[in-house]
Amino acid sequence: MIEEERPSAPNGVSPFEQIRCTNAAGAEYGSSRDFAQVLGYSDYRNFGQVILKARAACSNSGKRIEDHFVEITEMVPS
User: Least buried of 31, 35, 40, 73, by fewest C-beta within 10 Å?
Assistant: First the structure.
């Protein structure tokens, strides 16, 4: 089977790698606002349902939601 060609990301780095964050302890995390933008959601409010589905999938797979989703409040630049 021939492997599909995928469009290359700028500088060969995927958009998900570009938005990946790391805390002082070296743990990786990501901002849902950044994910929404990468996935093409122009209005963050529309991304809320995606987060709810992801939390449900996490729970349905036997994982603790609290171990994978942390609620934070960040100020949106004006």
Answer: 73
